[in-house]
Amino acid sequence: MSLHPVLLVFGFGLITALATGLGALPFVFVRSLAPRAVAQANAVASGLMLGASFGLVAEGTQYGGWETLAGGVIGVAFILATEQLLQRQQEMTIGRVGGADARRMVLMMIVMTVHSFAEGVAVGVSFGGGTALALVIVIAIAVHNVPEGVAISAVLRPRGVSIGGCAGWSIVSSLPQPLMAVPAFLLVDTFRQVLPYGIGFAAGAMVFMVFQELLPEAYDQGGRPSVALTVTLTLFGMLVFQQYL
Amino acid sequence: MDPILLVLIYSSVAAAAAGVGALPYLWHPEPPARWVGWSNALAGGLMLGAAYSLMVADVGRIPPAGMVGVVLGMVFVNRLHAASGTSDMDLNRTDGTDPEYGYQVLLINAFHAGYEGVAIGVAFSVSVPFGVFMALAIAVHNVPEGMVLTSILLARKVRLLDAAGLAVATNASQVLMAIVVFALAGAAPGLLPWALGFAAGALVYLVMAELLPQCYRQAGHTSIALVTIVAMGIVILLRGGGA
């Protein structure tokens, strides 16, 4: 290929971002606001995000345990601060959705978008480490992004967002990947040092969002055993998915 | 020392730790509901960290039989608790005195201890240091769990010393299961991935179905989330990320 490597990295990053949109597909037939549907959707998102975080932590600690931990603490603090800001916007509405639902949707988008920055750095650094496995890495990350799209759609769809909207917002949440992949590729050594912080940040923010927002709502709206079955299954499903693909 | 003796000693230490949960009541006979919520969140976070170490840190990647084990563990807990009428009970109700509830609470604590025993036995089969780590993590987990049980028993006019004794007694199943699983995995190593998955699936299911849900009614969402994530982080940090 005669493409400039920077363009190549950007293009591959873009492909992985577009893959996130595929995550909306399973929700074509889901449009109800029934409490049990919301509970199950929250449970799916929780399991996927916990599983993804387990994988991230395992990766981050290879670069540095304490750095990953520090990143995680910053991630939790970031979510707390963001929530403070969002809570001041009492009148916030998105379409016909207002109140806690609107806040949850915005928070989900923020968490998943911010976590894509860390993933973008991971893409760029792995390219910089030798492009032999580049295509494998791109396919792996594109595939990993699909369940992330599922998690986002699981939060947006039951609150009345269209399928196209879910796909679009899922892709938007992944756009930081190509944007971060390029500088990380060009400055591998610098970014490799930042990577464990970024990974810890992403994991901390996602896990905190699960415990503070998604799980309590799932328990409010659905039976505990059914929520727990879904969370457990999706958590381990995500882990296996990451480990084998 | 004979490894099975180590399993016996460490799982007994873990079981005895449940009695430590009675200590705070010496100074504070009626702790606020928030404390009970935080105790359960602490227990839940430690357990999730333990599940992480079972499936990520110490095995590299989940073997296919492990995934089947996860489903088996999760379904087993779900079915057993449904069959014994304990699946939708409030695990930390400190009001009311109906005898049925008291009996169920002891039963479910014994169930929980059994799954934790499987985790300890499995971890010892992987390696002795991992077994010691798991037993100590479960021991710490048993303290807040013992605290919740003590607070239920005290509300039912059980004496403090008896409550502590009952908390330890319900954990006898932990010692039993740890030794049985360790012996089985030693006799038939092919069982190990299944048992690993079973333990991890059971632990995560317990946290999601029984430890976390009521916490949110007893303390604020933010404080519960913080306690859970810190407990989980400590276990993961101590074990090292691995993989």
Structure characterization notes:
The complex is a heterodimer of chains A (245) and B (243). Chain A is mostly helical. Chain A has nine helices and two strands, in the order αααββαααααα. Chain A has helices at residues 5-21, 35-63, 65-88, 99-128, 134-156, 163-174, 176-186, 188-221, 224-244, and strands spanning 93-94, 97-98. In chain A, helix 1 (5-21) packs antiparallel against helix 7 and helix 2 packs antiparallel against helix 5. Chain A is globular, with a radius of gyration of 18 Å. Chain A starts with a helix and ends with a helix. The model of chain A has no long low-confidence stretch (mean pLDDT 82). Chain B is mostly helical and 243 residues long. Chain B has helices at 3-20, 24-27, 33-57, 64-83, 99-126, 128-155, 160-170, 172-187, 192-218, 221-239. The model of chain B has no long low-confidence stretch (mean pLDDT 87). The A-B interface holds A 54-55, 57-62, 65, 68-69, 72, 76, 80, 204, 207-208, 211-213, 215-216, 219, 223-225, 227-229, 231-233, 235-236, 239-240, 243-244 and B 52, 55-57, 61-62, 67, 70-71, 74-75, 78, 81-82, 87-88, 200-201, 204-205, 208-210, 212-213, 216, 221-222, 224-226, 228-229, 232-233, 236-237, 240-243.
Describe the secondary-structure layout.
The complex is a heterodimer of chains A (245) and B (243).
Chain A: H1 5-21, H2 35-63, H3 65-88, E1 93-94, E2 97-98, H4 99-128, H5 134-156, H6 163-174, H7 176-186, H8 188-221, H9 224-244
Antiparallel strand pairs in A: 1-2
Helix pairs in contact in A: 1-5, 1-6, 1-7, 2-3, 2-5, 2-8, 2-9, 3-8, 4-5, 4-6, 4-7, 4-8, 5-6, 7-8
Chain B: H1 3-20, H2 24-27, H3 33-57, H4 64-83, H5 99-126, H6 128-155, H7 160-170, H8 172-187, H9 192-218, H10 221-239
Helix pairs in contact in B: 1-5, 1-6, 1-7, 1-8, 3-6, 3-9, 3-10, 4-9, 5-6, 5-7, 5-8, 5-9, 6-7
